[in-house]
């Protein structure tokens, strides 16, 4: 069955459509959704089969995946220790275009950190994925939708994304055109901030 194509407006996503998507996520579905950077593909992070399906689609390993939380208080559930300096910076930077690498707590499913002690966590400045997380009651996996085109690294048009993925996923959310620059990845697992990947966000603004 081809994926459903569901239009949502970031400012005010319709509750009944969100509930429809959450039901699919609860049943192990894989969904493509907008963020404040590029379009992402993901699932309920606690569903091992769904996580493996995302890995097959993206040709990656579970340990390379990050996940989206609703807010900073939810992040604290999934990390062992947030130092005061890290907490202060994250409080100012989130929601925003950052992925923070943090030390994983025991609440993070083993499939995501089987061979390492850290995880990547996001709180994007986009109501659609955040509302999905809130209604689901679990974080959702996030990994970028890339394009084969070397010039356009990330797919931005939801209709073209649908054409490519309609037989691979369960739902593609049309949240308008996406960006073409990924999140900035900041490693906070040590005693200082280390930018692993320069992206849309500038962490220096919040230091």
TrEMBL record:
Domain named YrdC-like: residues: 15-201
List the Pfam families hit by this protein, alphabetically. Answer: Sua5_yciO_yrdC
* InterPro entries in the record: DHBP_synth_RibB-like_a/b_dom (IPR017945), Sua5-like_dom (IPR006070), SUA5_domain (IPR052532)
What the entry lists under NCBIfam families is as follows: L-threonylcarbamoyladenylate synthase (TIGR00057)
Name of this chain's protein: Threonylcarbamoyl-AMP synthase
Q: Which organism is it from?
A: Roseivirga thermotolerans
């Amino acid at each position: 069955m081809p994926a459903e194509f569901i239009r949502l407006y970031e400012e005010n996503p319709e509750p009944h459509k969100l509930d429809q998507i959450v039901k699919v996520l609860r049943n192990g579905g894989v969904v493509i959704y907008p963020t404040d950077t590029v379009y992402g593909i993901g699932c309920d992070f606690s569903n091992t089969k769904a996580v493996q399906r995302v890995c097959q689609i993206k040709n990656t390993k579970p340990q390379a995946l990050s996940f989206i939380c609703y807010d900073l208080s939810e992040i604290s559930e999934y990390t062992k220790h947030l130092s005061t300096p890290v907490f202060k910076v994250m409080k100012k930077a989130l929601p925003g275009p950052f992925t923070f690498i943090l030390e994983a707590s025991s609440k993070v499913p083993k499939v995501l950190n089987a061979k390492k002690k850290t995880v990547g966590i996001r709180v994007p400045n986009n109501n659609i994925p955040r509302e999905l997380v809130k209604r689901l009651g679990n974080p959702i996996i996030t990994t970028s939708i890339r394009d084969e085109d070397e010039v356009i690294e990330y797919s931005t048009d939801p209709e073209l994304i649908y054409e490519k993925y309609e037989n691979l996923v369960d739902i593609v959310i049309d949240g308008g055109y996406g960006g073409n620059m990924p999140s900035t990845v900041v490693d906070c697992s040590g005693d200082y901030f280390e930018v692993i990947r320069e992206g849309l966000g500038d962490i220096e603004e919040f230091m």
